[in-house]
Amino acid sequence: MAKLVIIGAGPAGMSAAIEARRHGAEVQVYDNRPEPGGNIYAALGSCRAHRQDVWSALGSSYEDGGPLLDAFLSCGAVFRPRTSLWHLDNDGILALKGPEGTRTDTADAIILATGAQERPMPVPGCTLPRVMGVGAAQILLKTSGVVPNGPIFIVGSGPLPLLYAWQVARMGGRIAGFVVPNGANLRLSAFVDIQGILAGWGYLTKGLAYQVDLLRRRSLIYRNARDIEIIGEIHAEYLRFTTGKQHKIKVGTVLLHDGVIPSIHPAAAAGLPIPYTPAQDAWRAESAGNIHVAGDLAGIIGAKGAALSGQIAAQTALGQTNSNASAKLNKERAFRRLMDAAYPPAQLAAIAPNTTEICRCEMVNAGAIRQAATELGPDPNRIKSTLRIGMGPCQGRMCAKSLQSIVARETGTSPDDIGLHRLRSPITTITLGELAGLKE
Ligand SMILES: Cc1cc2nc3c(=O)[nH]c(=O)nc-3n(C[C@H](O)[C@H](O)[C@H](O)COP(=O)(O)OP(=O)(O)OC[C@H]3O[C@@H](n4cnc5c(N)ncnc54)[C@H](O)[C@@H]3O)c2cc1C
């Protein structure tokens, strides 16, 4: 019987496991979170069972994950929660740490479905307490039913902030206002893509309903905002920006959002190809050998597309074919193309003031990166070894994308030509004790 190991139990990983079990494979699924579901369906099982108020506030896009979760839990795959992949070599040996200790595993084929993360949005003051990502705040809502302190202001745009604002309203809260950075306004010109509109009609009508709800609740909307900064002594207290005139607004919480990007670190450390996709302004991973990539890791596609791509990855890994799933995936791709054109990233990293912290782990600011790029050129590895940017515990998850944007602008190089810095294991933090306890 073929053995398949899957990393990540989001829609892609769960769907890959179901499909692989359907073909009789032995399947192990590892995820660093306590429950399966990934980002969109985070904590779905416990929320459905124990927190009815949150469950009904999250709406149908969350409830839709129920059948997939149930099919995953009953498919016969072995699920190992709270278990992180910290090393994967290109021979396919996986090193993991979790409740069962630190161990290695091997498989006939591996599916990486490590999903997405929010694109970091470095603005002055973004490291202050009471500032976080919209996605992070939404995970807090899904896992704990928590809505942060108001007044809540969202800096950014896109489908996720709209959905979150709607969900917060259903929890009895309110988003006081949106500050849309200059360049990140919804591009109505994208809606000439008839194929994309038809493919995503259901999503678009939902999005419109969220937008109408926002207007009904009289959330403030500031468009074309420039010089955005968050000010506070101990935590965020004010949001300052210009829109032709100066604004200084008292805030309780600031939520940042500049879209989501593939979570490429495990794939990059394993030496998989990591091409840059200009339309999504992000790196993505490609399959190589017996390591297959699925879901948002292969390029942001959304939950339905991720599930389809997980199914296809399992079929490919096991030598099966299914053109039906591929045709459905193409439809999801058409809608994603429309969304990518409609919500361009704000690109605030490229214009971040010199004092803005870009690498939180090693405390490297934008000015130091600009100086290094001028002196050393655009190679991110030279900049990394000089400034230690990307060498801290997050291994560049919070800074690699911003480094690319700053260096591209500073040196007049295309982002396409600036690769990701070299990544080395361990790709997540691991203690010496955990390492010493490694079981083969
Ligand atoms: C914070 C956030 C919130 C989102 N919320 C929504 C939403 O409400 N609605 C919506 O339509 N879309 C949402 N999205 C987008 C949506 O999550 C994706 O399009 C879709 O879920 C992708 O599915 P996936 O299976 O590829 O990956 P994901 O759902 O991202 O799942 C990947 C899983 O892999 C795990 N993982 C990653 N690295 C490792 C490792 N080294 N070891 C072990 N496990 C690992 C992660 O913890 C995660 O559980 C959100 C995205 C983010 C980043």
Characterize the structure shown.
- This protein has three domains: 3-117 and 261-340, FAD/NAD(P)-binding domain (3-Layer(bba) Sandwich); 120-258, 3-Layer(bba) Sandwich (FAD/NAD(P)-binding domain); 349-440, BFD-like [2Fe-2S]-binding domain (Arc Repressor Mutant, subunit A, Orthogonal Bundle).
- It is 36% helix and 21% strand.
- The mean pLDDT is 94.
- The protein has helices spanning 11-22, 44-50, 52-58, 60-63, 66-73, 134-144, 159-170, 194-199, 201-216, 265-269, 303-317, 323-342, 366-376, 380-387, 400-411, 432-436; strands at 3-7, 26-30, 78-80, 84-88, 94-98, 101-105, 109-112, 116-118, 131-133, 152-156, 175-181, 220-231, 238-242, 246-250, 253-257, 260-262, 276-277, 282-283, 291-293, 357-359, 364-365.
- With 440 residues, it is α/β, with parallel strands linked by helices.
- Strands 9-15-10-11-12-13-14 form a seven-stranded mixed sheet. A five-stranded parallel sheet has the order 3-2-1-7-19, covered by helices on one side. Strands 4-5-6 form a three-stranded antiparallel sheet.
- The structure holds flavin-adenine dinucleotide (FAD).
- Flavin-adenine dinucleotide is lined by residues 7-13, 30-33, 38-40, 61, 84-85, 113-118, 135, 138-139, 160, 163, 260, 263, 266, 295-297, 302-303, 306, 428.
- Residues 7-13, 30-33, 38-40, 61, 84-85, 113-118, 135, 138-139, 160, 163, 260, 263, 266, 295-297, 302-303, 306, 428 line the site of flavin-adenine dinucleotide.
Instruction: Compute the number of strand runs.
Output: 21
Helix content: 25-40%
Radius of gyration: 21 Å
Quickly name the level 1 CATH class of the largest domain: Alpha Beta
> Which residues sit in consecutive blocks of at least 5 with pLDDT less than 50?
none
Average of pLDDT: 94
Number of domain units: 3
Q: What is the approximate shape?
A: globular
The ligands found in this model are: flavin-adenine dinucleotide
Assembly state here?
A: single chain
Structural class call reads alpha/beta
What is the beta-strand fraction? Answer: 15-25%
